[in-house]
Amino acid sequence: MKKISTAFLAALLFLGGCNNAKKENNHAPNPEVQAFLDDYNTKYLKLYYQSSLAEWESNTHIVEGDTMNAYHTRLANEALAAFTGSKEVIEKTREFLKNKNVLDTLQAKQLEAILYSAANNPATAEKVVKQRIKAEALQTERLFGYDYKIGNKSVSTNDIDNILKNENDLLLREAAWDASKEVGKELKSGLDQLRTLRNETVQALGYQDYFSYQVSDYGMSVDEMMALNRQLIEEVWPLYRELHTYVRYELAKKYGVSTVPKMIPAHWLPNRWGQDWSSIINVEGIDLDAALEAKGAEWLVKQAENFYVSLGFDPLPKSFYDSSSLYPAPADAGYKKNNHASAWHMDLQQDVRSLMSVIPNAEWYETTHHELGHIYYYMSYSTPEVPPLLRGGANRAFHEAIGSMMGLAATQKPFLTELELIPAHVETDETITLLKEALSHIVFIPFSSGVMTHFEHDLYLNNLPQDQFNAKWWEYKEKFQGIVPPTPRGEEFADATSKTHINNDAAQYYDYALSYALLFQIHSHIAKNILHQDPRATNYFGSKATGEFLHKLLKTGATEDWRQLLKDATGEDINAKAMLEYFQPLMKYLKEVNKGREYTLPVRPIFN
């Protein structure tokens, strides 16, 4: 997960997604505009860093009853918002953009980024902006400071996850799943308030609603974005339908349930939100958890760094290890921390950090490679050639695509063999390996493109009433994923809010869906055209040619149009063909296994 500033970071990517022109503008930089940009950047970088430091403290040191972190975070974010959304900034930027056609390309991109940012905190809605910032800080503190309990015993989210991955007792599984959703009772009213405040903030500069505002970052209308997400669901649906049928029957057998349910009970699955089912499958011959436990948590992080260094990237700066929060808070620490992995570009320059709770298992092994993908992306474009205002991914999905792709590459058999995490001579069932991967990547699309994107669309665009939050969430869970709650869930709950992105990375979850299409597209290109290997069995380690390709893709940040950058790199526009091709061998196997079983999802997804 990438770290998103509540005040500004979305603006960094604006023109990476909305300007379809290549760099055909050869106009000389305008001195007056440059003076304005230089002054803006000096003030902005200082305020951005102060905001990041306050946000970091709020996420890494949460003490029950202590309101100072929230207070300092609010003040820092208010200061940043006041500057970026000031009337003077908006007026000057608009004035300069009247002559956009004669401006230097990078100057125009930066001005557009400034104006897009201003819409997130305009001075014309100063009171609303301050209320939103305060509400966001409070919502974050409530979410990550929540005391999860099973019975009367306090548990961590790692404890809950371990139960859902490993426990066969359905009563204990249900208790753990229920515990993971209790936080929604405290967050529901906060989400309702935040929705209103976010909408009112961007409406002050002419956007219809907050969802439309975020979508515009891609240079797309809401209808176009929803159509793209529905296309992804339709494309993976035949395989998802086979996976859904397979998992219903296999889990019923595992839990000793004689009547196979038509929809999957949420507490049967190994993930709190049902977005990743991969731990259901164990690939014989590969016991990463055991191998990694022997290595220890610190080895996971250092090995992830070694992976990137082997490709030709620089070692991580010492400050990364000095300043990051990489491991779980000690049980007697007296504070809690956000346990959701994230990467932070603190100052948009050299201060890069990661917030994780690494323990030595297979999931955190993949996550460390993913998060360092963000870190190396930050480092690649933090150069004089990329202005601070354009130090973001080519679009928001690119950041996730790179991280997820490197996580995938790090878990493929040839690389695991080289690391001696599995024996070189081990025989593995490649179909089962592919099944495990599909239960992560294919299963994710109906959750991200379906449940999350459609829920937030309704939340912001349609002003979904608070007393319908839970009903709508579970309507989409059943429609798009074929998942139902263990027992009826009334409107005293708000199960959507247990997902951190709903609270503090709002109206952007389609980023992750698009990133999956991008990751397979880029991975397929690397495998076939650089490594000359099967995309299902690659070993990136030590490939300087792969590192050069990636660095060229990363180093431009948001200075170039993302569509053209992708086409130049892979020869194609964004599509899901590579993803479908990757998993195609699995269809024959699943159809054979599912013979005689009842399919309970429709042949095609239903969107109305």
UniProtKB/TrEMBL annotation:
Residue positions binding chloride: Y218
Keyword set includes Transferase: no
Binding-site residues, Zn(2+) 1: H370, H374, E400
CDD domains in the record: M2_ACE
Signal peptide (from-to): 1-21
SUPFAM superfamilies associated with the record: Metalloproteases ('zincins'), catalytic domain
Any one GO cellular component localisation term in the record: membrane
InterPro entries noted in UniProt: Peptidase_M2 (IPR001548)
Active site residues per record: E371, H501
Binding site for Zn(2+) 2: H370, H374, E400
Glycosylated residues in this chain: N77
GO biological process: proteolysis
Keywords, comma-separated and alphabetical: Disulfide bond, Glycoprotein, Metal-binding, Signal, Zinc
GO molecular function: metallopeptidase activity; peptidyl-dipeptidase activity
Domain of life: Bacteria
PROSITE patterns named in the record: PEPTIDASE_M2, PROKAR_LIPOPROTEIN
Protein's UniProt name: M2 family metallopeptidase
Species in which this protein is naturally found: Fulvivirga sediminis
